[in-house]
Design a protein that fits this description.
Immunoglobulin-like; Rossmann fold; about 500 residues; seven-stranded mixed sheet; globular; six-stranded mixed sheet
Length: about 500
């Protein structure tokens, strides 16, 4: 596969004079050197707005990066954040260059008998009907064991009919071995740089056979992530294990969906397939090489690998208009220099339209101010940090509610909603004009999610005939799963 390297220049602070910048320079691996926009570099535009310099790769992806603080006091150790935002071109139309590889994994355990299995099969049929000739599909069903109905079958008018007929023969029976299904699915996937792959895993219950613990499922999901295949998990009704399905999605760079009734399945399958056919880039990876002395404190929300000073964060496939973020907290040593290198950032992806791997890179550098104070936290970074804290609050409230501590759960949500309300206008007011609308929208969405969760718990407590624990009601369990879905979404 051909490799094209695009070097990008941008300052990443709150003003055009900020020293938190991406700097040009040849790659030490010899894969390319920088070319300025306007100097014969196709597909590279340098845009400068009120919020300071920014960069744009005018192709499959737009990559933005910034430090949490555009200025830090020198002479002492300091903490800051680095945020990398990768956004797929919203103007992209459906791509035909990259074939799709879809694996549909259906729960056929005894609890799926009747309408749930019928709706699941109908949703799978709809997805197969929408696949294009040349795409491939695998069908796996599972109960106490997995059955491979179709192994990476190329779709055409004849195979499509056979696949639909096979689905009609699926019957519900037995236990639930989710890990059996995933092991079988991993064995039928082909993958590859020029192929967009996705697993749609449906479950309506907890695992009763095979792997049953969350950490075990994280290990399984890691194997899919390493193959570049996200798992989008779909929980049906309110008895499934939301911790397991959420972990599978988050660890593999997939999505998690809650279908309160089986009737919602066709719409979920349609959304997933719609995102697949609008895929712009595959196998996107963000890497940060920390400067000497810089310490990684934590990576928020995302699975990652750290080898020495090099951090690798796979972010998966992106469809038109989709955004993925990587937020890390860093500890910088005391510095006497006015400008201190923080990290080299490399972002690479497969451009599906051009069928080749592209990359962007740059260096984040902090401004150190002798005798001064740290600058305020960058509003865009602050908003992404709030998202992580909101997701944590939803997870905490879920755990408290499930343990019967309903007052504590609602108190946790109330505290989070109050913090968001108190910070929202301050963060919005500090935002550069180009970022203001998206910052406000993000924070308001978070407030809405927390308020919805609190209201859902209140309705569960007030339901007629509520048992001693509202968490045992269907309304309570539904809200827990709705919050779990939102928490995964906020991590992106």
């Amino acid at each position: 596969m051909k490799v094209r390297t695009v070097a990008l220049l941008a300052a990443l602070g709150m003003t055009a004079t900020s020293y938190s910048v991406w700097s040009f320079g040849p790659r030490p691996d010899g894969r390319g050197s920088a070319t300025r926009a306007g100097a014969g570099s196709p597909g590279l535009e340098l845009a400068v707005g009120d919020g300071g310099a920014a960069f744009r790769a005018d192709g499959a992806l737009r990559v933005e990066g910034r430090l949490g603080h555009e200025r830090l006091a020198s002479g002492r150790a300091a903490s800051t954040f680095a945020l990398v935002t990768v956004t797929a071109d919203a103007r992209a139309t459906e791509r035909t260059a990259a074939p799709l590889e879809l694996a549909i994994v259906l729960d056929r355990s005894g609890s799926m008998r009747g309408a749930p299995l019928e709706r699941a099969i109908a949703a799978a049929r709809g997805a197969i009907d929408r696949l294009r000739d040349g795409d491939s599909v695998s069908l796996v069903t599972y109960a106490g064991e997995a059955r491979v109905i179709a192994r990476s079958v190329a779709v055409d008018r004849w195979s499509r009919s056979r696949l639909l007929a096979e689905l009609d023969r699926v019957q519900a029976e037995g236990e639930t071995c989710i890990s059996c299904a995933l092991d079988a699915t991993l064995g039928v996937l082909r993958g590859g740089d020029a192929r967009v792959s996705r697993v749609l895993l449906l479950s309506d219950g907890e695992a009763t056979a095979g792997v049953r613990d969350v950490e075990g499922f994280r290990r399984i999901a890691r194997r899919f992530r390493e193959r570049g295949v996200p798992i989008s998990s779909i929980g049906v009704d309110v008895e499934y294990d939301h911790l397991v399905l959420g972990a599978l999605a988050l660890e593999s760079n997939g999505r998690h969906h809650f279908a309160e009734s089986a009737g919602e399945l066709p719409a979920i399958f349609d959304r997933e397939l719609g995102a697949l056919v609008r895929s712009v880039a595959a196998d996107a990876i963000v890497e940060l090489e920390l400067a000497p002395g810089v310490e990684l404190v934590r990576v928020l929300d995302r699975a990652h690998e750290l080898q020495g000073r090099r951090l690798r964060v796979p972010i998966g496939d992106l469809s038109a208009g989709e955004e993925r973020t990587v937020l890390v907290e860093l500890r910088l040593p005391a510095a006497a220099r006015a400008r201190e290198p923080v990290a080299r950032v490399d972002v690479s992806w497969v451009d599906l339209a051009r069928e080749r791997r592209d990359s962007a890179f740059g260096t984040l550098t902090a401004r150190r101010d002798p005798g001064g104070d740290d600058a305020p936290l960058d509003p865009v970074v602050a908003t992404r940090l709030e998202r992580s804290e909101t997701a944590a609050a939803l997870r905490d409230a879920n755990s408290l509610f499930a343990a019967g501590r309903t007052d504590d759960a609602r108190r946790r949500l109330a505290e989070r909603q109050g913090a968001l309300a108190e910070r929202r206008e301050r963060i919005v007011a500090a935002s550069p004009a180009p970022d203001r609308a998206r910052v406000r929208e993000d924070l308001e969405r978070q407030e809405g999610s927390v308020g919805s969760a609190s209201g859902g718990f209140a309705r569960a407590e007030g339901a007629p005939g509520t048992p001693p624990s509202p968490a045992a009601t269907k309304a309570g369990r539904a809200q827990v799963r709705r919050s779990a879905e939102t928490a995964v979404d906020l991590a992106f």
